[in-house]
Amino acid sequence: MNIFKLLKGTKLLKVGSNPYVYHISNHTEDIKPYTLFIARKGSNFDPHKIIRQVALKGANAVVLQDRNVFNQLKDLDITVALSDNILKDQALISSRFFNNPSLNLNVIGITGTNGKTSTANILAQYLTFLGKNVGVIGTIKHFYKEHTLGSGRTTPDSIEWFRILRKMKDLGAEYVIAEVSSHALDQHRVYGTKFDGGIFTNLSQDHLDYHKNLENYFLAKKRLVDLILEFNKDGIFVVNIDDNYGRRIYESYKNKLKIYTYGRSEDADFRILDGRLSFSGQHFIALYRDHYLSIFTKLLGEFNIYNISAAMMYLIAKGYDPKCITDLTYQIEPIKGRFEILKSDFIIINDYAHTPDALKKTLKSIKKLKPNRIITVFGAGGNRDRTKRPLMGQIVEEYSDIVIITSDNPRYEDPIQIIEDIKSGMNMTNETYTIVDREKAIEKAIDLAEKNDVILIAGKGHETYQIIGNKIIHFDDIEVAKKYLSLKNLKENCKNKK
């Protein structure tokens, strides 16, 4: 692709003899002949320090953040540009390099603290049932039909973001449902994307290690609405109006774009009314423009009523018949690691809940099922927001009969210190165990469980690994639970035969 087309908006410092590039990168180890290299400073490494070596590897164009290193490149046959905003320019360059894929896709962005993964997958299932070709970019993985196109970050780096959009388009996708994290919005990873629309699920405490306070966190989330306004005047936005931050978005943007609301509030466009919950599914009533909708779903938990309502409101706003969407709802399958159930004489629930608000909502939903006792196994991630740990401990203690505190992904922190942070918010009045080894913690919960109890294993959900220091080891909560449930059943059978 022509360098000058890609570098529009940057300041050219020097023009080389070859005006074409065939690869773009911001990693110093990913340099091929005819590469456009974007010298973005990272938190741990500044590529400007080795910019000459990068150029000599084969890059024939470089975008700099720091003009002071330009002298190192003056004698090379290379195009050099300077960026005032490297994150935005990287996104725009990436979009151009991959031929602006979002212009030919219906990209729907979903943001919020909790519910992004479930809402994205619910919406993708609805659209698939409606005959659409749908890709998903999110926490579990990035995929289109049987094609897995990546995993890792909820929302990838802008180069990878536009590469995936291009690949999905080439494979035949019409829609891409994307979880858009606050980090991604703050770092402009999706800048330049034409979003068909977006959904805001809720906002509660998380990621304060990065954002420092809730207001900054909210302002980052709100950027998704601004992107829709900037790149697609006809885009729509759907908000949870029961959430205080969702209402703020609605009040701020209701006269600027087409915005629709859902929730239990009387003024919600899609109003959630009464509901009934059981271990086999739930039924709820919703009101949309004087029409009562009787909705059945296999998905459990009050939070999933909200997730389904968000997806339904989006589709109704796009012109789909509410009755048709209602009829499809029972076909929606549960999402791995989101209120995932394993049944025996007692129930095991595996859930990704890893914030105070998510834990509270999950445990309140379990309470509504009227179990004999609730046994909760949980921990907190290391090198992340420490201030939420005592809040998590307080909530789990309030809603559980037995508490087992264990390790999550400790990363580079001491897991015992993380546990102490959790316990600082607790009164320690309940039956409480501290078991650092997560497998042994799950084993203990299953050993303690009696008929009609519910065990909640919280925090990791779909994850099949544990991060300890610089090691990533295989660990799957539901796999471990099945192992010890099977052993318990074998022991019980042996007792019965005596």
In spatial order, strands of the major sheet run: 9-8-7-10-6-11-12-13-14-15-16
Give me the number of helical elements.
16
CATH homologous superfamily (4th level) name of the largest domain: Mur-like, catalytic domain
Query: What is the alpha-carbon Rg in Å?
Result: 25 Å
Highest CATH level, the class of the largest domain: Alpha Beta
How would the global form be characterised? globular
Which architecture of the largest domain would the CATH scheme give at its second level? 3-Layer(aba) Sandwich
Low-confidence stretches: none
Total count of domains:
3
Q: How many angstroms separate the termini?
A: 77 Å
Helix content: 25-40%
Biggest sheet architecture:
11 strands, mixed
Descriptive key words:
eleven-stranded mixed β-sheet, 35% helix, 3 domains, globular, UDP-N-acetylmuramoyl-L-alanine:D-glutamate ligase, 498 residues, Protein-Tyrosine Phosphatase, Chain A, 24 strands, alpha/beta, single chain, Udp-n-acetylmuramoylalanyl-d-glutamate--2,6- Diaminopimelate Ligase, Chain: A, domain 1, six-stranded mixed β-sheet
Write the layout of secondary structure elements.
Blueprint: H1 3-6, E1 11-14, E2 23-25, E3 35-38, H2 51-56, E4 59-64, E5 79-82, H3 86-97, E6 106-111, H4 116-129, E7 134-137, E8 142-144, E9 147-150, H5 158-171, E10 175-179, H6 182-186, E11 195-200, H7 208-211, H8 214-231, E12 236-240, H9 244-253, E13 258-263, E14 270-278, E15 281-288, E16 291-297, H10 302-317, H11 322-328, E17 340-343, E18 347-351, H12 356-368, E19 374-378, H13 388-399, E20 402-405, H14 415-423, E21 431-434, H15 438-448, E22 454-458, E23 465-468, E24 471-474, H16 477-496
Parallel strand pairs: 2-3, 3-4, 4-5, 6-10, 6-11, 7-10, 11-12, 12-13, 13-14, 18-22, 19-20, 19-22, 20-21
Antiparallel strand pairs: 1-5, 7-8, 8-9, 14-15, 15-16, 17-18, 23-24
Helix pairs in contact: 3-5, 4-10, 12-13, 13-14, 15-16
